[in-house]
């Protein structure tokens, strides 16, 4: 029912110490965490070593008490078994990060419409959460802590419920999208083009969630590889990852005519068109997809700001979209594309050999390790944190590629 913690935020949100503090009522304060946040974090620290067992118990409680909810989850729970709980715990942990938390939960609430979730389901989840915490946070649990968790869950669920209700007025719960082309670029990377059954509004740099007919109720995130197009088509770059059910189905099984389901767009890795600051983009592997969309977006706005794209891959053969990127470079004099293979070193190190980058807005997309090292490298190169954007919230890796 709840999605994985989605990649929804910029690097600023990734560093919780840089986010504004609030009191228990959401009012910013510079004094540090609210009392509720402290109690919640204490519980989180206690359950961390038994998170697996607590997760199983949480779902057991949820399904035994509410058998009707079982059908909203995939048949095999192993891949996303802990997503619901993880999302709740992420939200609880970021209780004091009012703006980041609200954006995260609104996105989560909208995204839940595709599962058939409605407001009446939220109390059942809250009761299972409190039940599981009571059982596994034995040392820290008392009336005061329970009251803090109830307030926290009430806040979390209300933001999600309100966002879903608001979204319902203007957008469908999901879209059907037909595969119109399937281009295998390497033995395990495909560019898949889709035609949604009704207009799908999104911004360059955002991602969608996707369900295939072969793995019902299993949803994965994929970034759009193009800015919005006049013909309304959407394209995604998919890498078949080991044991990735959805990604393998998309790369090796999907064919034109197949119909997938899409959830709403998400993510804040978008271009700020109110400035003319230059862009520094790092795309690793299929992470080049949203970077290409950003380049198209800059071009469509007629901007002439400098854009440097560092495109990393393991080998030259894995730079499956280099022809497209070089063609864009030929067309747009403000664009420089720098291919980097592992023989030349890791992508973040290569970026630091150029520069200076202190005046640029930076965008990173690719494997979590690359994004983490890239953020560190860019900060080291003088790019302020608030100018660094990527899709990962704190330490939580989304199941971005299935
Ligand atoms: N919006 C986003 O952030 C998107 C993220 N992705 C993610 O990108 C990943 C792409 O995977 P692959 O194509 O297999 O990439 P890959 O594993 O082939 O790596 C691509 C590049 O990243 C570098 N890299 C990898 N690990 C690194 C580390 N620990 N430190 C520094 N550099 C590192 C490699 O040297 C290479 O240049 C997937 O995990 C997918 O989920 C994909 C599309 C969009």
From TrEMBL:
It comes from the Bacteria. Its cofactor is heme b; FAD. It holds the Pfam family FAD_binding_6. Its EC number is 1.14.12.17. Gene3D superfamilies: Globins (1.10.490.10), Nucleotide-binding domain of ferredoxin-NADP reductase (FNR) module (3.40.50.80), Translation factors (2.40.30.10). The keyword Signal does not apply. InterPro entries: Cbr1-like_FAD-bd_dom, FAD-bd_FR_type, Flavoprot_Pyr_Nucl_cyt_Rdtase, FNR_nucleotide-bd, Globin, Globin-like_sf, Globin/Proto, MRET. The keyword Disulfide bond does not apply. Residues 172-272 form the FAD-binding FR-type domain. Keywords: 2Fe-2S, Heme, Iron, Iron-sulfur, Metal-binding, NAD, NADP, Oxygen transport, Transport. Residues 1-11 have a biased composition (Low complexity). One of its GO terms (molecular function) is oxygen carrier activity. It catalyses: 2 nitric oxide + NADPH + 2 O2 = 2 nitrate + NADP(+) + H(+); 2 nitric oxide + NADH + 2 O2 = 2 nitrate + NAD(+) + H(+). Residues 31-165 form the Globin domain. Residues 1-34 are annotated as: Disordered. Belongs to the globin family. In the C-terminal section; belongs to the flavoprotein pyridine nucleotide cytochrome reductase family. This is nitric oxide dioxygenase.
């Amino acid at each position: 029912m709840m999605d994985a913690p989605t990649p929804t935020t910029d690097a600023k949100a990734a560093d919780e110490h840089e986010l504004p503090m609030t009191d228990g009522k959401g009012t910013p304060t510079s004094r540090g965490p609210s009392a509720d946040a402290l109690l919640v974090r204490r519980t989180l620290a206690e359950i961390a070593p038994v998170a697996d067992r607590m997760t199983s118990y949480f779902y057991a409680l949820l399904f035994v008490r509410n058998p009707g909810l079982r059908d909203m989850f995939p048949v095999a729970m192993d891949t996303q078994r802990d997503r619901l709980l993880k999302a709740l715990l992420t939200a609880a942990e970021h209780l004091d990060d009012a703006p980041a938390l609200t954006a995260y939960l609104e996105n989560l609430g909208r995204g839940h419409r595709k599962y058939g979730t409605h407001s009446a389901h939220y109390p059942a989840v809250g009761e299972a959460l409190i039940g599981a915490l009571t059982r596994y946070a034995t040392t820290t649990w008392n009336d005061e802590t329970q009251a803090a968790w109830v307030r926290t869950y009430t806040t979390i669920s209300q933001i999600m419920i309100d966002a879903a209700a608001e979204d319902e007025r203007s957008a469908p719960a999901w879209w059907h999208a037909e595969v119109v082309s399937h281009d295998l670029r390497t033995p395990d990377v495909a560019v898949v083009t889709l035609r949604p059954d009704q207009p799908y509004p999104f911004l360059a740099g955002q991602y969608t969630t996707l369900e295939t007919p072969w793995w019902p109720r299993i949803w994965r995130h994929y970034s759009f590889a193009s800015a919005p197009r006049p013909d309304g088509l959407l394209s995604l770059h998919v890498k078949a990852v080991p044991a990735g059910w959805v990604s393998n189905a998309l790369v090796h099984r999907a064919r034109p005519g197949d119909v997938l389901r899409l959830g709403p767009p998400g993510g804040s890795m978008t271009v700020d068109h109110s400035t003319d600051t230059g862009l520094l983009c790092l795309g690793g592997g299929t992470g080049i997809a949203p970077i290409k969309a950003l380049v198209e977006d800059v071009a469509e706005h007629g901007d002439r700001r400098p854009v440097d794209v560092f495109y990393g891959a393991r080998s030259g053969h894995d730079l499956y979209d280099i022809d497209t990127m070089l063609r864009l470079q030929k067309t747009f004099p403000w664009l420089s594309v720098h291919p980097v293979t592992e023989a030349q070193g890791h992508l973040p190190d290569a970026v630091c050999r150029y520069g200076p980058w202190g005046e640029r807005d930076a965008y990173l997309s690719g494997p979590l390790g690359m994004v983490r090292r890239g953020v560190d490298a860019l900060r080291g190169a003088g790019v302020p944190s608030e100018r660094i954007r990527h899709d990962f919230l704190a330490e939580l890796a989304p199941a971005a590629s299935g």
